[in-house]
Amino acid sequence: MIYKASLDKTAVIITNIVTLLFGALIVFNFILPLAIILLLTYLICLLLKPLSYEITEDELIIRRLLKSVHINRSDIESLKLIDKSAISGSIRTFGVGGLFGWFGKFANTQLGNMTWYVTRRDKPILIIKKDSKKILISPDEAEAFVAEFKGFKPIS
């Protein structure tokens, strides 16, 4: 099943403000190198934004416009819904912090280093891989996603 990845209120506000700010800077203060940098930044963020999450027999797929992320189910040690307080205080070490969501490398004292593919921060799902890497995702229907993942019976 495919699960939507809609933006939370904060991401919508940040995305709208950045869109207006970038647009104003390009239109009212046109400097070609600046315009190119702003447009490239915006385009890269848009292309890497999580669009949806999908569970298949063999994989968990994070759909994006540019190169979806495929995680083999056999590589996943655990997957669970966590409280949003577990990610509060996280620091972005390399990534995007609000423009079309939160994605890239993040860290905090409680969970350590993580890779986020998040569009909403109210019901995060923590994936711990067998190699100890941590991934955070945020499907709109988080509880249903976890239930489907845990209850998925591969076809023999």
From TrEMBL:
Ranges of residues in domain Bacterial Pleckstrin homology: 52-150
InterPro entries: Bacterial_PH-related (IPR027783)
Superkingdom in the source lineage: Bacteria
Sorted UniProt keywords: Membrane, Transmembrane, Transmembrane helix
TM regions (residue ranges): 20-48
Name of the protein described by the UniProt record: PH domain-containing protein
Taxonomic path: Bacteria, Pseudomonadati, Bacteroidota, Sphingobacteriia, Sphingobacteriales
